[in-house]
Amino acid sequence: MPLLEVIAILTLATVAFLAAFFWAPFLEKALIRWQCWKKEVRSVAPDGRATPIFNALHKDRETKVPRMAGVLIWITTLGLAILVIILDNVWPEYFHEFNFVNRSQTWIPIFTLVSASLLGLFDDIFVVTKKGDSLAKGGGIKFRHRLLFVFLISLVGAYWFYYKLGWDTIHMPFDGDLQLGIFYVILFSLVMIGLFSGSVIDGLDGLAGGVFAIMFVIYSLISFVRGQYDLSAFCAILSGTLTAFLWFNIPPARFYMGETGILGLTTTLAVVAFLTNTVLLLPFIAFVLFLEIGSVVIQLTSKKLRNGKKVFLVAPIHHHFEAKGWPSYQVTMRFWLIAGITSVIGLIIFLIDRT
Question: At what angle do helices 143-159 and 107-128 cross, to 10 degrees?
Fold first, then answer.
């Protein structure tokens, strides 16, 4: 085992955690000072129908707890990336091993994280300033416009993989590589948009932060086994910042991630899956995201085809369990357990496939 790489990765993750933990209270005070919370609770579902159950569950928290705290995650990660580049240029004999920024492994995930997070930041600003889409639907940038921006980001990523890196295959566990040619670009966009739909997971205190921390830990391990040490460091840094975020986000949350956090994380997860050639393991590693997306699709389809009849009391599914009487912290921790188990199953499949 390359000891220096292990030390560097663990050190970077620790520094990321400590840095995020240090400035999180200042961020919280700033968000409160600027009143960065929703001014009204969403009362309309994506299909245009009223959501009285959601409103009853969240009316007290939605308009009192600040959002936009996802900046803690991506600004810390970006700041650490800039810092190690500077230190590597000034004292390469001491800090070269800590520089995780390079063209083949981390340029595109850093670009994706920052660009998608900035899109989410604008959306959050529109929400807290009561601009953009109707407040009844949640406010902010209209969904179709966000979807368009994510599609454009996915095209940049697909271009980089297909034309710059020359990748056009995906690995099928236990069956080798499947060459896709230009269809690789289409698959890349579909996966990123699909994971972007997983943004609906950000609905309970601590839920999204814990699930994504688990997934990026798993991808740090996968990257390390593949010898992608810089990508492993990047994923470990994200896990470190997410752990610091969780300290302030576990029930009762002192702030919410907001779109500036969840958009960057979902799209970056897609990029990391392609970089590690483990796209087909996403149903295991990102199982909770697919569960959340599936519950929304089932609910909307049922309402459309069955004259308004619902499968769940409210979707996505974590709100269904809330409506059944589960405390929010119980839902959160059980989803953490599910994410941990399914992610480890994905890791095991990956390791067995490599033997």
Answer: 170
What does the alpha-carbon distance between residue 252 and residue 84 come to, in Å, rounded to a whole number?
A: 35
Dig out the tokens for 214 from the structure. Answer: 């688990």
Contact 309, 303 (CB under 8 A): yes
49: phi then psi, degrees, rounded to nearest 5? -90, 160
- Which H helix or E strand runs over 32? helix 3-33
Q: Please give the average per-residue pLDDT across 204-216, as a whole number.
A: 97
Q: What is the mean pLDDT of residues 296-311?
A: 92
How many CA within 13 A on the CB side of residue 135?
Answer: 14
CA 279 to chain CA centroid, Å, is 16
Record the tokens describing residue 68, joined without a space: 């936009």
* DSSP, res 163: I
**The predicted structure's pLDDT at residue 47:** 44
Q: Is residue 353 predicted with pLDDT exceeding 50?
A: yes
- How does pLDDT run across 45-80, given as a tens digit for each residue? 544 455 666 666 666 667 789 999 999 999 999 999
Contacts of 55-63 with C-beta under 8 Å, sequence gap 24+, read 57/314, 57/319, 57/322, 57/323, 61/252, 61/253, 62/37, 62/38, 63/37, 63/38, 63/39
Residue at token pair 């220096």: 4
Is residue 30 a contact partner of residue 125, using CB atoms and an 8 Å limit?
Answer: no
343 pLDDT more than 50: yes
CA torsion sign for 220, 224, 228, 234 is positive
DSSP-derived secondary structure for 218-281 = HHHHHHHHTT-HHHHHHHHHHHHHHHHHHHHHSSSPSS---HHHHHHHHHHHHHHHHHTT-GGG
What are the structural domain ranges in the chain?
3-280
Instruction: Look at residue 140 in the predicted model and tell me its pLDDT.
Output: 78
Distance CA 218, CA 223 (A): 9
Question: What are 129's two structure tokens?
Answer: 């300033």
The model carries a pTM of 0.95
Q: What is the 3-state secondary structure (H, E, C) of 196-233?
A: HHHHHHCCCCCHHHHHHHHHHHHHHHHHHHCCCHHHHH
List residues bridging with 178 in a β-sheet: 170
Give the number of other Cβ atoms within 10 Å of residue 166's Cβ: 7
Q: What is the mean pLDDT of the chain?
A: 92
